[in-house]
Write a structure and sequence with these properties.
- Helix content is 48%, strand content 12%.
- By secondary structure, the chain is mainly alpha-helical.
- The protein has a domain at 335-424: Arc Repressor Mutant, subunit A.
- The protein has a three-stranded parallel beta sheet with strand order 1-2-3. Strands 4-5-8 form a three-stranded antiparallel beta sheet. A two-stranded antiparallel sheet has the order 6-7.
- A hairpin with a 2-residue loop joins strand 4 and strand 5 (100-103).
- The protein is elongated and about 100 Å long.
- The protein starts with a strand and ends with a helix.
- The mean pLDDT is 97.
- The structure holds glutamic acid.
- The site of glutamic acid has 7 residues, from loops.
């Protein structure tokens, strides 16, 4: 029976790299029908915070990662770690230094790890100092409590970041000393920025929370994270989580550096948005609007606008920004576009003329607006663009967006005329 775990330290938000670690452990467990556990590594009482734990659990659930059994909190197990340290002291494998308890590392030994991702990695204990197990404040070190708990939870496989490769031989020494069987280890290369530097804000954001706030869909983020470290074979890129669970194979995990590409993630998010029905996007977009402090419009209008824009945006935040002109008069205006398309007096004249032709019509359908636009251009000897660009600018404040005539229909005759007149004045 496969048992894996994700072991976050609640000292900050869920990092995108940690989310990937959690995801691979989860996919591995679900693929084999094993268990995926959570262990909260909150031994650093000063830096661990309840709110961070709450955020981490919320973000995991948001990503679609659920866990089995009650999470184990290391802060509640100090007695267990101290007892294990006492046993090693009694066995002569450790010594005290003040209040601290230190493990003696036997020199000159080779330790080989058969890593599931990197293959064989060789270490020598000459490079490993004696290891603190219990610090003088009574708290355990990460390596010690990690081993005790992985054994206690009967973990069979540990998948984690390369930043822990150097910890693995130390942990193996503890397993030996405690008479425990080590699990299998697999270390994933860390996620780097495109420039090869450590992932930071300028590469697009480091926490799951930031992506959630910007309107990335969990499915898209999860799909993208899966590709950062795993190749499903072929050149397929859109792989929903359920499918990943079905086809997952450890052999597809790569040992080469993963480079975070925000543009690719944006592309993928656009694909996921496009694939959703309007009704599915509706609550997500309402939530996004509320989160961005925008008034939430009526479902009917919002659904129409979703249909017009879902294939044109990469994030939900972008949707909200790009469509603000449908839901109120306080929308953003592209200054350059205004200069170019609304400033010239010919534009003002065109807008005035177009508006009076529209006014005479019954209602305002996209087809009728298009027809009127074509007719106006013909009568005046203009190109269609000379009518379309100023009109789009006048009614939306933007130089791009959905088809102008569909936009006019969705906005409604009254608003369209009001804005065209205002722009032409
Ligand atoms: N708390 C450690 C971390 O977040 C866990 C490492 C491990 O998986 O062993 O890096």
């Amino acid at each position: 029976m496969i048992r894996v775990r994700f072991a976050p330290s609640p000292t900050g938000y869920l990092h995108i790299g940690s989310a990937r670690t959690a995801l691979f452990n989860w996919v591995y467990a679900r693929h084999y029908g094993g268990s995926f556990l959570l262990r909260i590594e909150d031994t650093d009482m000063a830096r661990s915070e309840q709110r961070f734990l709450g955020e981490i659990l919320t973000d995991l659930k948001w990503l679609g990662i659920d866990w089995d059994e009650e999470p184990v909190h290391q802060s509640k197990r100090f007695d267990v770690y101290r007892k294990a340290a006492e046993d090693l002291l009694k066995a002569g494998k450790a010594y005290r230094e003040g209040e601290a308890c230190i493990f003696k590392v036997e020199k000159g030994r080779a330790i080989e790890v058969d890593d599931m991702i990197h293959g064989k990695i060789a270490f020598n204990t000459d490079d490993i100092k004696d290891q603190v197990m219990i610090k003088s404040d009574g708290s355990p070190t990460y390596n010690f409590s990690c081993v005790i708990d992985d054994a206690f939870l009967k973990i069979t496989h540990i998948i984690r970041g390369d930043d822990h490769v150097s910890n693995t031989p130390k942990q193996i020494l503890f397993y030996e000393a405690l008479g425990l069987m080590p699990p299998k280890f697999g270390h994933m290369p860390l996620i780097m920025g495109q420039d090869g530097a450590k992932l930071s804000k300028r590469h697009g954001g480091v926490s799951v929370e930031e992506y959630k706030r910007d309107g990335f869909l969990p499915g898209a983020l999860v799909n993208y994270l899966l590709l950062l470290g795993w190749s499903p074979g072929g050149d397929r890129e859109i792989i929903p989580l359920e499918e990943a669970v079905r086809i997952f194979d450890m052999k597809g995990m790569t040992g080469v550096q993963a480079k975070f590409d925000i543009q690719k993630l944006r592309w993928m998010n656009g694909e996921y948005i496009m694939a959703k029905q309007g009704a599915e996007l509706l609550p997500l977009i309402k939530q996004q609007m509320a989160g961005m402090g925008k008034p939430v419009p009526q479902d009917g209008l919002l659904l129409k606008v979703i249909d017009l824009y879902k294939m044109r945006v990469k994030t939900l935040a972008e949707f909200v920004q790009l469509t603000d002109h449908f839901f109120g008069d306080d929308y953003s205006v592209e200054e350059k576009g205004r200069e170019k398309y609304l400033r010239p007096s010919e534009s003002k004249e065109v807008l005035r003329d177009f508006a009076s032709r529209l006014e005479k019509m019954d209602g305002l359908s996209a087809a009728a607006a298009e027809e009127a636009c074509r007719k106006l251009a013909e009568d005046k000897g203009l190109k269609a663009g000379q009518v379309i660009h100023p009109t789009r600018m006048a009614i939306s404040g933007k130089t791009s967006g959905a088809g102008l005539f569909e936009m006019m229909e969705a906005l409604g005759k009254e608003k369209v005329l009001e804005r065209m007149r205002k722009a032409s004045a």
